[in-house]
Amino acid sequence: MEQPKLLRYSKILKPGREFSGKTFLVTGANTGIGYAAAKLFASKGAEVIMVCRIRVKALLAAEQIRSEYEYERRKDSDAMPTEDLKLTPMDLDLSSLDSALTFINKFKQNYTKLDVMILNAGIAGVKKIITGDGMETHFQVNYLTHFLMCLHMIPLLEESKGVVLSVSSEAHRVLAKFKLGNFQGEKTYGRFLAYGNSKLFQMMASFSFERRLSHRNIHFVTMHPGHVTDTAIGNHITDMSILYLLRQCLYAVDGIESSVAAKDIYEILRQKDEYKSEVYYNRRELGEASQDSRDVVKQEQLWSYSIKLLENYLPVNMPPELLPEMNTKY
Ligand SMILES: NC(=O)c1ccc[n+]([C@@H]2O[C@H](COP(=O)([O-])OP(=O)(O)OC[C@H]3O[C@@H](n4cnc5c(N)ncnc54)[C@H](OP(=O)(O)O)[C@@H]3O)[C@@H](O)[C@H]2O)c1
Fold first, then answer.
1. Which residues have a catalytic role annotated?
2. Were both Cys, which of 103, 150, 192, 284 would link to 92 (CB 3.0–4.6 Å)?
3. How far is CA 223 from its chain centroid?
């Protein structure tokens, strides 16, 4: 059997099945942080819905996790639980709203509750591409379709007092610029600006949901996973730009593996009873999100703009708390 690529969880986690009976959904679960998180939560007993852009990748990733798990179990038969992993591969292309609705409907036919939704899938630093829905790709993939998923999953999350964890980035602070009329780079486009903005919007939406829905016992938290080296996100960035060099330095100084980032997600979820509002973790430490992300007026502008873009895809009978405030300009 092939040697696993990832750190063995039995070395970094106490054994236990504390998520037995829980349903986790992870976007972008075929590689990087999403893959490591799917593996970790399945090893803790959860059923993990591995949501991937391409179905075959989801199936292969589930198989790979099973074979790595089997290998680990043989090495640490005392430490690792023995039940079969519950991995359910599903496909969803976040650059298509039709694909998102198809996924959401299929999911709702099979599940009545959702305990944890990890919004992880993402792209970074690609040139300007407009999706089939007419949107800038970072904006739609990293932010808008995840936002749509939240709107539709509220009843299932409420059923289980669920948590939505958005894998954002410190880029929301250092690369973003909130500017009306330029949410999708209509006036000024930069591929790193587009990435930073999509991460900022993810955080703003998370804080808005939390503000609107805290009385419903659903929590929304955000995190920066650290500088995670064994992922595919920056593989296409090979030019010698300042940002490329900066990233290489950060990776060299304090890079971590995706299995460590997954462990941080695990620690964050274990702190559920202590969440306050506007929760932002820098790795597993509570941090302060940028001023823009916490600005309620700006949050409302983004919210109104997003709801308008999604008007043909919204859930029927949207809860009144989710409707935009009247007369918000965007
Ligand atoms: N790595 C870091 O240092 C770092 C730092 C800060 C934040 N983050 C954040 O961490 C998250 C995970 O990144 P990663 O580093 O693990 O990157 P990764 O290895 O490239 O994983 C990204 C995942 O997103 C999926 N994805 C991309 N486009 C998609 C689409 N249209 N529809 C559905 N899924 C799509 C990819 O699927 P395919 O394989 O099919 O393309 C892949 O599964 C991202 O949100 C990123 O912004 C990472």
1. 195
2. 103
3. 9
Provide the domain limits for residue 66.
18-310
121 C-alpha to ligand 1 centroid (Å): 4
The residues with which 167 forms a beta bridge, in sequence order, are 223
List pLDDT tens digits, range 57-80.
Answer: 999 999 999 888 888 777 776 656
Residue-wise DSSP of 228-276? E-SSSTTTT--S--HHHHHHHHHHHHHEE-HHHHHHHHHHHHHTGGG--
Token pair, residue 327, equals 């007369």
Whole-prediction pTM: 0.95
How many domains are contained in the chain? 1
Ligand 1 pocket: which of 33, 172, 280 to mutate (most atoms within 8 A of CB): 33
CA-closest candidate to residue 152, choices 115, 122, 116, 107:
107
pLDDT in tens, 121-138: 999 999 999 999 999 999
Task: Give the whole-angstrom CA distance, residue 20 versus residue 88.
Answer: 15
Residue 157 located in a structural domain: yes
